[in-house]
Prior knowledge:
alpha+beta; 5 helices; single chain; 27% helix
Amino acid sequence: MIEELLPESVVAVEAFGDEKSENATLYPEEERIVARAVDKRRREFTAVRVCARLAMEKLGVPAQAVPTGERGAPAWPHGLSGSMTHCDGYRAAALVRAGDLASLGIDAEVHAPLPDQVFESIALPAEQRRHRALSTSRPGVHWDRLLFSAKESVYKAWFPLAHAWLDFSEADIELVTHAGAGSHAGSGTRGGFRARLLVPGPLVGGVRLSAFDGRWLVADGLVLTAVTVPHR
Length: 232
């Protein structure tokens, strides 16, 4: 599913439930990260790293550990860029050779409304106005959850370039549906989005970015978003 949102240069591997964590082993540097984690966290951590190692193999790269680095971001092997995500019942990893993309970010969420008060804390006034319009015209999509997921993907693509925090309030995201997209999740509603940065963006190839572009899909009870940043 997630590969539908990504260019051909990106390799994606996904898993449903715990199919990738059963009988899987972790590298010592990964094991230390989840040594005291609860079982659910450990299974998610393991499954998504199995996905990452399978993606490495598809790229012709030997499977390697994926420990956490700065601010908990994945520390990818030299020459690779990637992103991982997991939610209840779904895990995915997307990898690309660093020469093909400057950065990427993916996110998966269960297609359900955000908990009370969360939307107001993550959405800018302009985003809230657009949310009301989208909820009226396309009530079968939980646009609040989709916005949250888009912001997560933007952050995951931003951080490897900027090495700094990006707050929910520092990117204004406009969600759009593609022509002919279905009107409810069961039909595979899809579209795109643009995240206008409200703070100075990172430099890519000497060009300071002012926005990130992404794509989204709502299908099979999931919200999936992806952002790719090309080289300049």
